[in-house]
Amino acid sequence: MDYVYGPGRNHLFVPGPVNIPEQVLRAMNRNNEDYRSPAVPALTKTLLEDVKKIFKTTSGTLFLFPTTGTGAWESALTNTLSPGDRIVSFLIGQFSLLWIDRQQRLNFKVDVIESEWGEGAKLDVLAAKLAADTDHTIKAVCIVHNETATGVTNDLSLVRRILDEYRHPALFLVDGVSSICALDFRMDDWGVGVALTGSQKALSLPTGVGIVCASPRALEASKTAKSLRVFFDWKDYLKFYNLGTYWPYTPSIQLLYGLRAALDLVFEEGLENVIARHKRLGQATRLAVEAWGLKNCTQKEEWHSDTVTAVVVPPYIDSAEIVRRAWKRYNLSLGLGLNKVAGKVFRIGHLGNLNELQLLGCLAGVEMILKDVGYPVKLGSGVAAASSYLQNNIPLIPSRI
Ligand SMILES: Cc1ncc(COP(=O)(O)O)c(C=O)c1O
């Protein structure tokens, strides 16, 4: 089937894959190149250095795998752990569930700490487990920084504090797929062992680069970890890093140039400004939801996500119908409710290269759809709440000051 175009642009508000900016699209519109020429290693070197800046690490080693977030999960686990290793993992929504499934299929013994969907990780249970684990049988603590299914952000500084309090050596493995380059993330400060993300989220690239960053301790662990790994083996990459040619197999040339352009956009705006923009987008969306009289799936303010908002609909409405209508009638793409919250929530993704007026377009669309499906919303109420907040808070565009 041919792609079904509508007039104007599709308003892409799923929480990944997100809009790709024109500058990135143009940068990727190029021929293939010989990746063994001097140009590609020179480009790669700048990418490895600059991506580390968005992870806020100077000591980490970065890997750009031709894969998705799921492959990055596997890379983080298999390079640092051995079959049978005990790990602790938090189940708070669909993506943490999927990561746990991978952990179990890779034969780790997983202590799952489960929360209601909409709640954050139960860190008191982690503390109790670490306190009891005087023999240090727990080899890793795995957490999804931002659970994309429910719009819940966990406080990673607290996880670090708990690990430190019990002087526990477990590696701290973090899924930052819907957080890194949008939310405050500090790999070195928080003593993260391995952090990972995917290119189609906050970096606003096509899917296809699984970004994995390993701390010196994680690299050390990889020397003795016995999990079977082939395609995702860090060792193969390190060999080519030492040779200065960087690639053990063919990279996507177009994605590398796209990544360069995406990073240039982030640095032009300033990483802290990018994070502040996401805070504004998150807050504006939450104000709109409140004005519509609907509930946020996220149960407490401390867990509110600035990259995705899951909106709970009244029981007489099927949230999947909202998503269907959004696409069919308004050329707006919203996120479905997944698994336990299917039919109960729809998601508004507000991450990546996105500005406030784009968000207001989405919010206006959501209001019309809510009315379409029989929810008594006052048209303009959410847009008014969001825009009065934004009008008071949007700074000048950093590159135009
Ligand atoms: C938090 C999180 N982790 C992992 C993944 C899986 O990433 P991918 O679909 O790129 O394999 C996703 C995808 O949305 C995600 O949101």
TrEMBL record:
Pfam families: Aminotran_5. Keywords: Aminotransferase, Pyridoxal phosphate, Transferase. Its cofactor is pyridoxal 5'-phosphate. The modification N6-(pyridoxal phosphate)lysine is found at residue 201. It is an enzyme of class 2 (transferase). Substrate binds at residue 347. PANTHER family: ALANINE--GLYOXYLATE AMINOTRANSFERASE 1, AMINOTRANSFERASE CLASS V. This is alanine--glyoxylate transaminase. It comes from Cucumis melo (Muskmelon).
